[in-house]
Amino acid sequence: MKSTIKFITAFLFLMTLLKSCVQKEEIDPIATICNSEEVVANTTFGEVKSLYQGEILQIQDDLIIEGYITSNDKAGNFFGTLHFQDLPQNPGEGFQINIDLRASHLFFGEGSKVLIKLRGLYLGNRNGVFEIGGVFTNAGGGLSIGRLPATQIRSHILTSCDMPQKITPSLTSLEELNDTMLNTLIQLRDIEVDPRDICQSFAVPQERTERQLRDCNGNKIILNNSGFSDFQEEIMPSGSGEITGVLGKTGNDYQLTIRDISDINFNDERCNGFVFPCDETIATTSDRIFFSELADPDNNSGARFIELYNSGDVAVNLNGWEIRRYTNDNTTISSTIDLTGFIIQNGATFVIAADASEFENVYGFAPDFNGTANGPAGSNGDDNFELVDANGVIVDIFGIIGEDGSGTNHEFEDGRAVRLRDVVRGNPIYTFSEWRIYNDTGGAETINMPQNAPESYTPGER
After folding, report:
1. Dihedral of CA 274/277/282/287: which sign?
2. Dihedral of the alpha carbons of 7, 9, 10, 15, in degrees to the nearest 10
3. Where in the chain do CATH 2.60.40.1260 domains reside?
4. Beta strands 316-317 and 343-344, pairing class
5. What element of type H or E holds 22?
6. Distance separating alpha carbons of residues 125 and 145, to the nearest angstrom
7. Cβ(403)–Cβ(437) below 8 Å
8. Within 13 A of 48's CA, how many CA atoms are on the CB side?
9. 260 Cβ partners below 8 Å, 6+ apart?
10. Distance between CA atoms of 353 and 360, rounded to whole angstroms?
């Protein structure tokens, strides 16, 4: 009996030992070289890239490049790719290799020096991003660069025993970005989240999600986030500051991928000084916001204004909302008003003046927003308007885009267009029956009765 127990114990110990060895082999496919004279870089990134002539090719020569890892998949924002650059500081170029290996940061830490044996690998260029790896036939029947199988990684990617180097991100600006920076680590300053993405999570669960960043000059870049990342549920920061990440490209647009959330430091005031509270009791879109009054007084063009009204039960954050004006019969936008930074309370109006000073002189109170004479609020009554939310959805419209308002049922020249009180929602299709319109012609069932300020208008009232 004792001998049987000893045999079983020994058997279980042996199986456990074998299992641990197999598991180690499965997760440790990377070869390490130390001061080997047999494996040294013999070509440059630029020389390898020059082999590409418009079509994916398999590299036949015994070429070896070396570089320093810039990416890190520990937080789950990178998957199936390694990004590396030619120098740890002030790099000239970057590269990408696609690999079928999870938790690659355990083998290729940031700043690690790697040597890539290129013979047998495939080289391609997607939107200016040079990548190497395996190959597969895509849906269109052509070739695409795919992930190098885990079983082949040991044969092509070697890690050096040199101590990892500190990768210093290249400080640059959105205006200075160019393709030589692709796959390298960069840092941008004075950057903020676009108002349309404030109060949103970094990513939709289990989906690759693009968020917009911008600088103080309005230049934009895509922030590429994984729905599987550790910080997927975190809310995008509302301030401004610096961000570090690996530069990529989608189509003609540059994109940035951070390694983890510590790559973002947006603790400074935003470019325009606005503060955006992410309050669950405040909506970010609603069809209860609509045009309620448009004014072009016959006696005073300086008293022109546009009024919005919120008929809903909750306040609405107007971050990313805008009013678009289409002058006369134009089909392209003539001017806009960015409503970012304002909240319209439930049951309240929001008045935009063409001239704030003159508006206050005439009506006795200050408007909520000071527009310009050439902006939407400065219309002379024959233009068309759209109210657009942060998602680009047309919430409400006045007039017919492409049709000059003169003589039509959407002309309010020298007059007034006022929304009927039983209208409680925006309408993305112009509907004349929702309006009472005064002008100086009376065409198309409108009312020929020019209006004078202040007595003919009710800004701030609904």
Report:
1. positive
2. 120
3. 289-448
4. antiparallel
5. helix 2-27
6. 9
7. no
8. 31
9. 72, 74, 75, 77, 230, 231
10. 9
Identity of the residue numbered 420: L
Residue type, 271: C
Among the four given CATH numbers 2.40.50, 1.10.3470, 2.60.40, 3.40.1350, the one describing domain 31-160: 2.40.50
Verdict on whether the full-model pTM lies above 0.85: no
| Residue from 110, 231, 232 nearest 169 by CA | 110
Write out the two tokens for 224. 């590429």
Dihedral of alpha carbons 267, 270, 274, 278, sign: negative
**What CATH architecture applies to the domain 170-268?**
Beta Barrel (2.40)
Extract the tokens encoding 422. Answer: 């039983």
Q: Which fold has domain 289-448?
A: Immunoglobulin-like (2.60.40)
pLDDT along the chain (462 residues), means of 10: 46 42 43 66 97 96 97 97 97 97 94 96 94 94 94 93 94 97 97 88 96 94 97 94 97 96 95 77 89 98 98 91 97 95 94 97 97 95 96 95 97 98 97 98 96 98 92
